[in-house]
Design brief:
globular, 6 helices, three-stranded antiparallel β-sheet, 179 residues
Length: 179
């Protein structure tokens, strides 16, 4: 297992990370695309909405990462029920604007399983980055882009390099000092 530090997103990168890091699809398009191409690939969903929509349409991701919120507001019980039925979630802490050591470890461990669920106490938005870096090449990482659709990242060495370079601009911090 690789050791990763606790990282904080600097203000200077916030705008960069609002841009889609893959192709943007509408719900119907992404479902059709996945049904045609996903066989034999790992599918990682970061976000409650994208995870629940795939599950509702019969697509079973390898990993879902969720936090019981969409656009920072609580999701309804129906969506929570869909996500909880998928797989018993592993609960971890990941504060907003952070990528914790615990998150890296949980994602790395979960990708070794056939199916897994990680429930975040805090915020899951930035966990697209470690999910992409840790996923095998050829995997799909999906996340929602509010008001625009679903973003699909096809994992390869180029996107991994892009995210590793971004992480070099993050600020290392020891979150244990904040407890």
């Amino acid at each position: 297992m690789t050791a990763y530090p606790d990282l904080r997103l600097p203000e200077s990168l916030r705008e960069e990370l609002r841009k889609p890091c893959g192709k943007v699809y509408q719900k119907k398009e992404i479902i059709e695309f996945l049904k045609k191409t996903a066989s034999g690939r790992k599918i990682i969903c970061v976000g409650d909405f994208v995870s629940s929509r795939l599950l509702e349409r019969g697509i079973r991701p390898s990993l879902i990462i969720w936090d019981k919120k969409t656009k920072r507001t609580p999701i309804d019980e129906g969506v929570i029920s869909i996500l909880e039925r998928f797989h018993t979630p592993r609960l971890i802490k990941n504060p907003a604007g952070r990528i914790t050591k615990e998150s890296w470890s949980a994602i790395e461990d979960s990708l070794k399983e056939e199916e897994a669920s990680i429930l975040i106490e805090g915020e899951e938005d930035l966990l697209t980055i470690p999910s992409t870096i840790l996923a095998p090449d050829g995997s799909y990482v999906l996340y929602g882009l509010p008001g625009r659709g679903f973003v699909l990242i096809v994992v390869d060495s180029n996107i991994k390099t892009f995210f590793r370079n971004l992480l070099q601009e993050f600020v290392e911090e020891n979150l244990q000092d904040e407890d």
